[in-house]
Amino acid sequence: MTPAMRGVVITGLLALCGAADATARSLEAVRQRGALTLCAHPNALPFASRRGDVPGFQVEIARELAKRLEVTLEQHWVINSFQYRRADCDVILDAIADRAVLAEVGLRMSRPYHRSGVALAVRPASNVASLAELGSGQRVGVQVGSVVSMMLGKRGVKTSPFAFEDDIMEALARGEIDAAAVTPAAIGWFNQTHPNARVRRIPAFEDEPDLNWNVAVGMVSPDGKLREGIDAALEALLADGTLKRIYARYEIELQPPK
């Protein structure tokens, strides 16, 4: 599974399978324990990783949040719904900022801090500058069954289905497709890890609400003070440029939430 999709899938697994039975926790309890606990996938760069010198932006952001709460960060590495149910998480990163949906499964959201979604990537030599400029014979790589796949199909755009985003990006680099509809994180990480085969991001889906979303910190049954502490920490990280610098290390542009 592509790193980007692992990040999306595991967030959903936590929301659907793990959070509903969580007990309430407080900022005082976090400080008494001396640590903020993050649930993340152990092999999902650019989101998170337990191996090597590159921790992933979720871990880097969580470290900064913990620092501002005056505690350390602990990671619980989880890869499936069973492990999520057993994990004792305080927070997850990149929770889609839908307050009602998160509340249904026992998660509370912080203030949104970033905007993500689906973007279009092309090779540097491509003359395509927008979705409308794709020729009738050109194909866009999409994930099977995705919203963008259905949307492009309805518009008569030819698509090539793939199981994972990393497969789409590799096919684009090899010239097997003409464009890739993937997340900005997938584009940034591909460029980071393929400096000799960099791709170019072009405007395509910015006005499509179903293909753009805000992200927030998902908190497992926090008290009011913990929520306020996380929000204040995010405000400080945005104000001093820390979040922007973290994302930039993974070639992702920090986008203001809407």
DSSP helical segment count: 10
Order of helices and strands: HHEEEHEHEHEEEEHEHEHEEHH
Uncertain parts = 1-21
Q: What structural category arises from helix and sheet content?
A: alpha/beta
Could you name the CATH homologous superfamily of the largest domain? Periplasmic binding protein-like II
Q: How many distinct folded domains?
A: 2
According to CATH, the fold-level topology of the largest domain is D-Maltodextrin-Binding Protein, domain 2
- For the record, what CATH class of the largest domain applies? Alpha Beta
Gap between N and C termini, in Å? Answer: 29 Å
In the CATH classification, which architecture of the largest domain applies?
A: 3-Layer(aba) Sandwich
Report the strand count: 13
Indicate the overall shape: elongated
Question: Major β-sheet, in short?
Answer: 5 strands, mixed
Return the average pLDDT rounded to an integer: 88
Major beta sheet, strand line-up = 10-9-11-8-12
Strand coverage percent: 15-25%
Q: What would a concise description of this structure say?
A:
The chain has 258 residues and is of the alpha/beta class. It has helices at residues 3-18, 27-33, 57-68, 81-86, 99-104, 147-154, 165-174, 184-193, 224-239, 242-248, and strands spanning 35-40, 43-44, 48-49, 72-77, 91-96, 107-109, 114-117, 119-122, 139-143, 158-162, 179-182, 200-202, 212-220.
Describe it for me?
By secondary structure, the protein is α/β, with parallel strands linked by helices. The chain folds into two domains: 3-115 and 213-248, Periplasmic binding protein-like II (D-Maltodextrin-Binding Protein, domain 2); 119-207, Periplasmic binding protein-like II (D-Maltodextrin-Binding Protein, domain 2), CATH 3.40.190.10. 38% of the residues lie in helices and 23% in strands. It has ten helices and 13 strands. The chain has helices at 3-18, 27-33, 57-68, 81-86, 99-104, 147-154, 165-174, 184-193, 224-239, 242-248, and strands spanning 35-40, 43-44, 48-49, 72-77, 91-96, 107-109, 114-117, 119-122, 139-143, 158-162, 179-182, 200-202, 212-220. It has a five-stranded mixed β-sheet, with helices on both faces. Strands 5, 6, 7 and 13 form a four-stranded antiparallel β-sheet that branches. Residues 1-21 have low confidence and may be disordered.
